[in-house]
Each structure stands twice: as C-alpha cells, then as structure tokens.
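The authors assume throughout that readers already know how a fold can be written as discrete tokens. A single example would do more here than another paragraph of explanation. An entry of this sort, consisting of the sequence and the corresponding backbone structure tokens, reads as follows:
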Amino acid sequence: MLLDAPARPVALPPERVVTTVAVPSPAPRPTQTRLTCSFTFEAAHRLPWHPGKCAGLHGHSYRLDVTVTGPLDDNGIVMDFDDLHAIVHRQVIDQWDHRDLNLVLDNPTAELLANRAWELLVEAGIPLAGIRLWETPQSWVELIAEADGGGEAGSNHAW
C-alpha cells in the first residue's frame, strides 16, 4: 500500500528560474486641469457680402463655451465658477446679448466673433485653453490656445 511506504525526499531542481514582468508605472499626474462653462445669448447680424440668405438681417441663439486651464490652487480649483461666469458675462455676454452684432464688428462672422471674444477674455486675465462659439446647434467655431502658451493669459489672474 502506498500509505505504508516510507517518506522519500523530493528532489528540487538546482536552480529556479524567476521571470519578471515589467509593470507599467502609474499614469503621470496631471499638471493642468481644464474646466469649461457654457453661456448663451441671442443676437442678430447680417453678412452683406454673403451670396445667400445670410446677407439679410437674421438672428441666432448662440452658445459660447469657455475653457480655462491651470494648476489647482490651494483650494483645489483652477478658477471659481462664479468668477468665470461674472467675467464672461461682463466681457462678452452682456455686450452681445440681444444686439445687432454688426454694431460690434463690421463683419460679424462666427470666426471673427470667436476671435473677438478671445481677445476680450484674455484682456480680462482669463487663462484660456479654448473657446467654442456655436452659431447653430450643428455649427461652431473653435479656438484653441497655442501649445507654447502664446494664446494664453498666463497666471496673472485679474479676477
């Protein structure tokens, strides 16, 4: 019977082979955080040079998405949402809402309006990462800060 057999030592191989597997390090921690707020306004414009119906006075329900970027401060935020709302309203929305945009710009295309909004927000010290101006629910213009920071307001916050 096997149970009655004396115990025998088990021979192990003289060397063990240990295989190591490279484990990827955790993802790098973000150095910048982006936050975006959306705003709406109603406005009219006309594009006299346009060959179609945009040559006549017409209106849009615009949406402006403003994205800021930066490191988190001691409170764990890039920027207070209330501060961003107040600045965007003061600089852009309150100036353009229910207005004839031809009184704001000579040629108020979505592209030129987006560029003007960018200028106004940078002047206010917003650390812009990008803006998106929606002229219709299906059509928008997007401006993105240059990677070298050339389009950003930097860290000199005016709010």
